[in-house]
Amino acid sequence: MTNHWIDLKNSDSIFIIGCNPAENHPISFKWIEEAMDNGGKLIVVDPRYTRSASKSDIYAQVRPGTDIAFLGGMINYALQNRLIHEEYVRDYTNATFLVGEKYDFKDGMFCSFDDKDKTYDLKSWAYATSADGTPLRDLSMTNPRSVYQLLKNHYSRYTVDMVCSITGTKKEDYLKVVKNFCATGRPDKAGTILYAMGITQSTHGTQNVRAVAMLQMLLGNIGIAGGGVNALRGESNVQGSTDYGLLFHLLPGYLKSPEFDNVDLKAYVEKWTPKNKDPRSANWWGNTPKYLTSLLKAWYGDNATAANDFCYDYLPKRMGSYAYNKILEKMGNGDLEGLVCMGMNPAVGGPDSGHARTALGKLKWLVTVDLWETETSIFWKRPGVNPKDIQTEVFMLPAASSVEKEGSISNSGRWAQWRYKAVEPAGKSMSDLWIIDQFYKRIKNLYTRDKGVFPEPITKLAWNYGTGHEPDVHMVAKEINGYFTRDVTVKEKDKVLEFKKGDQVPGFKYLMDDGSTVSGNWLYSGSYTKDGNLMARRDESDPTGLGMFPKWSWCWPVNRRIIYNRASVNPAGEPFNPKRSVIAWDAAEKKWKGDVPDGPWPPMKDEKEGKYPFIMLSEGHARLYALDLKDGPFPEHYEPVESPARNLMSRVQSSPGVKIPKNISSDLAKFPFIGTTYRMTEHWQTGGMTRNLTWLTELVPDMFVEISESLAKQKGIKKGDKVRVTTERGSIEAMALITSRLRPFDVGGKLIEQIGMPWHFGYAGLATGDSANVLTPAVGCTNTSIPEFKAFLCNLEKGGNKA
Questions:
Q1: pLDDT single digits (tens) 16-63
Q2: Cβ–Cβ contacts within 10 Å for residue 12, how many?
Q3: Cis ω for the linkage preceding 557 (within 30 of 0)
Q4: What is the DSSP secondary structure assignment for residue 504, as one 8-state letter?
Q5: How far apart are CA 43 and CA 46, in angstroms?
Q6: Tell me: the pLDDT tens digits for 445-493?
């Protein structure tokens, strides 16, 4: 989230697309309803009439997988009707930047596409620059090569009629959405967009999020109270897990993981440290060497020295993708010997899960770490399989639940909150920290005893988290924050600071690239300082009245509650909306007041010291035009890989960079309906926790699919009938739930039905049922590889007796 949960109360218009917070994030609705009580309007855009939609002022139905068409039309409407925040767009985005002459777009394709490799040459989309490499700009935004004019031209095709033909949205509903939300493009208004898996789980998921962000940039809704692009994370600590490098292409703190050509530290720094000659650009990722060096010092301690590149050579260098689908492909081919699943259940949670179950049987060994037996841990005795035919050796490690261990969790709003152990772990279950600690110690003993080919990356690790049975979680947190490895003197503008060896680092601006600092994650530097564990704070004071509560827990980065908040003020440092002031420049005291500013420098108007507001981008301006995405600088509508419709925008049916597996079908004679998956309140994720609790299984005991009244009539299906849903990947049996919440879509004058289904069921636990992900395709986004769970083709047939 750019903002945070409580900040929702400050919105004039709350736009929910691709999520269902009333059902999946119910406590958040307290703040949405507070905004509504104060006159704010709630917009819900969803294929189904959800519980969130039932609370809305405006609801619009959208066909799964057509979000870019929907959002692109909103972008076009704002541009054509001059509803954008022009000062914000001109001063704070790259709308004024000129694009090089190579860039072009024709009939669904951007320029420089290699049809053999299915990749674009991103260099052809670069800015036009002066001789010294500085991007050229046109502050009038009238130059036809300016980002602004290219943007207007690109989205001029996204007319209301075209959008509604693609999305199946009623024109009157679409106009209500557009008019209400685009009215927030004024300094005295604020609009927020909430999204989740309905936006991201798509072959163009990254571009869906880009479209959301671009709309907010045009309306001036980034950095302000009540605004923002706000992702609703699917678990209480998903934000924390991504912050700490859970994804294969990242190290902790969103540092890039080394690739095969980053042969040494110098090569890594050269490739991943952006450069910019504009003195008014903070270019914050220019600090990459400091953050990586401090991370390596945290990992390898005294073994990491300048002479050995701080043990950089010990880091694995990846080649290509290690995304979920690639791992499952390797498993299925017998190319992986073993797998460790910690809180992960691929037998239910991943796409094409029937293939995943087969692939698990190709492993020599499997370790599962969970609270209960999961489908993955008992895949070898699943229905229809003879355990004697499975040679995989499976180890089940019982894990402690969240209330049985101490530590921090980071919520969607980036608030790191410390939780204490409420009860001792049940039975022989242990904490994740203990399990990882034992993994390391025992593997190190094996490497020390047996040597191995390359033992140093394990045996040289600095690993000191106490001498007790359970590792000291506070020592881990202190190492993440960082400390000084020697006495250090820091000269600042008006003072000199002295730090002793072992002192906690006050914040990430003190991290160095010379080995004098340690930090396990630069983003969390400042969370556990000499003042103690700031994540454990519970001060309820709120001096701004905006719900920031700056002394409740701790928020990355540097306790900043709204990121990019320098964009909430004009170039002179005056809030665009004084009634909802996030920060303001005090000219007399020469400092910012309010939230922690995105950097201490004076406002942009100060031509000597002022900085642009979007400090994480090398040019300092928010990108309406992207330079580094694999599928285009502007989001463009493409159909899902399995779609019931022809792409009306261009001749290019689906995103051209997507690698399409064999078991994909667009045969509408076989699979005439749209399938989509979703979550529900009563069950959670793959059901490992909720389907083992009697009071929740009583509430929802059976797998079901939702169908419209018209589809039920067409198929002769009654409520409670057993039905079979089939795709090219497999088929499942479920109960039919006939509801007016689902309606068919009008796609090009033809009515297309949809089938909705929860994905929480499997063959383990107290309540069992077929898994929806048996049906979903293992095809992913060009940029992130996130699977396309939300739109696929299927068939429905009546089968079995009424339950």
A1: 999 999 999 999 999 999 999 999 999 999 999 999 999 999 999 999
A2: 22
A3: yes
A4: B
A5: 10
A6: 999 999 889 999 999 999 999 998 999 999 999 999 999 999 999 998 8
Q: What distance in Å separates the CA atoms of residue 3 and residue 227, rounded to the nearest whole number? A: 7
Q: How many CB atoms lie within 10 A of CB 801?
A: 7
- Confirm if 480 and 295 have CB atoms less than 8 A apart: no
What is the CA 126 to chain-centroid distance, rounded? 26
Q: What is the C-alpha end-to-end distance of the chain, expressed in Å?
A: 43
Estimate the crossing angle of helix 160-167 against helix 171-182, to 10 degrees. 120
Which residues does 619 contact at the CB level (< 8 Å), separation at least 6? 94, 97, 135, 276, 278, 281, 612
Return the H-helix or E-strand segment holding 270: helix 265-272
Task: Output the CA torsion sign for 292, 298, 299, 303.
Answer: positive
Residue 99, amino acid: V
Q: Could you tell me the maximum CA-CA distance found in the chain, to the nearest angstrom?
A: 80
Tokens (6 digits) for 156 = 């001029």
Q: What is the DSSP string of 706-717?
A: EE-HHHHHHHT-
**DSSP 8-state symbol, 260:** T
Q: Is the pTM of this model over 0.90?
A: yes
Contact present, 69 and 158 (Cβ < 8 Å): yes
Phi-psi region of 82 (alpha: psi -120 to 50; beta: other; left: phi over 0): left
DSSP annotation string for 204-248: THHHHHHHHHHHHHHHT-SSSTT-SEEE--SSTTHHHHHHTT-ST
Distances (CA, A) of 12 to 158, 225, 548: 26, 10, 18
Residue with the two structure tokens 């207007």: 152
Type of residue found at 613? P
Residue 5 CB-half CA count within 13 A: 18
Cα atoms in the 13 Å half-sphere on the side-chain side of 294: 33
